[in-house]
UniProtKB/TrEMBL annotation:
SUPFAM superfamilies: MFS general substrate transporter (SSF103473). This is Major facilitator superfamily associated domain-containing protein. It holds the Pfam family MFS_1_like. GO terms for cellular component: membrane. Belongs to the major facilitator superfamily. MFSD6 family. Its main location: membrane. It is a multi-pass membrane protein. It comes from Apolygus lucorum. Keywords: Membrane, Transmembrane, Transmembrane helix. Residues 9-423 form the Major facilitator superfamily associated domain. The chain crosses the membrane at residues 12-31, 37-56, 200-219, 247-264, 322-347, 367-389, 401-421. Signal peptide: none annotated. InterPro entries: MFS_assoc_dom, MFS_MFSD6, MFS_trans_sf. It is found in: Membrane.
Amino acid sequence: MKFNKRLLPIKAHYFFQNGGSAPIAPFLAVIGKDLGFSATIVGLVLTAIPLTSLLVKPIVGALADKFRIHKSIFISLICSDLHPQITIATTKAADECFLTRLSVSTFTPASCLIECSNWQYFVGNGSSTNFTGTGLSAALKLSHNTTNKLIFDVLYFTSGDGELWNSSCTDSPQQFCDLMCSNPLLQEIIGKPTVNDAQVFSYAAFWMFAVCVLIARVATSCVNSLGDSICFKLLGDRPNDYGYQRMWGAAGWGLVAFITGVIVDKMSEGKFVKDFTAAYYLSAFLMIVDIVVASKLQCSVSAKSPNIFANVQKILTGNPRFLLFLVIIVFCGIFSALIWSFLFWFIEEVAAEDGCSDLSWVKTLDGLTLAVHCYLGEIPFFWISGWMLKHVGHAHCMTIVLLAFSVRFIAYYFLTSAWWICLLRL
């Protein structure tokens, strides 16, 4: 196969653009989970991405066509993808293995400063002292835990002058107290956010997360569309060679995702939470390189059709087979969205069932699943896609795709080890 130097910039763009997104984008769902948002809320945010893209893409395309500024918009969108991902990546996540780590020291009472609205419900010995508005030191000992709460026994209180007070258990109404503990792990758990779905829209953290995710992913979606348009222009009368260009994006995505997983796990050794600092720097570096590469692309502008909407209407109403194909595409999008959005969430839950020690390498496994998917799944099929479409036909290819989704989801249901996910990502 003859190498075309003219196509080198678009290959490099696909590699660095996808590689720049890989350290952050695949982890968005678990980042939202670690911020305390439920699967419903995270799914709501991720659902807004394609709907927003559906509205933004035509506007971006119209502006690019009208003012002939395709390259300027293209580079601006890459830049607008950079800052939100930085904000998301540097958001502090909480550790899901706190129960195991904390239980190691359950025999040692923790010293905490507690301030409650009404102390008389808790302080025994017939005390008439009014502690309202003051903080008392307390000795706490972990009694037992469930999947969503910790239960401590309050052994005793210590007043400011050193006097000990036994704790008292009465049929008191629920009290809300501020708690500050000397144990750094326990304090980390106390600060772990848990957001009620009904109240989530009142939290600034939710809006920061949602807005950053929307900006970053919608910008990426627009970059992908413009990049594909530029690619087909460069290919000219050889559109079947698109797979040979696009596979470089899969190469960048899989390679960088795996490297990110290894680095994050390595830098997080001995820490309560996963450290994504390296992922942020790696993403920023690759996106800056992509901006340089994008500036070298040749963005030729072709004459646009004066009857775009009429042409679309003719396709939709004049070909029932196309409508059926469109329905299949929608279902493929739904199935893909489930995997793209919640695969890492699923991996971490399966890994947690084998013990929290398995979570020490879970980001490496996350990255490995993407590497396997890209290098043993996407890239080979990008390479043979032209042959398959020619000899198998697009209709039969879609049938094979639906069958593959069915087998994969059934296998996920029976999965007992997180490592088997690598095989299912082929």
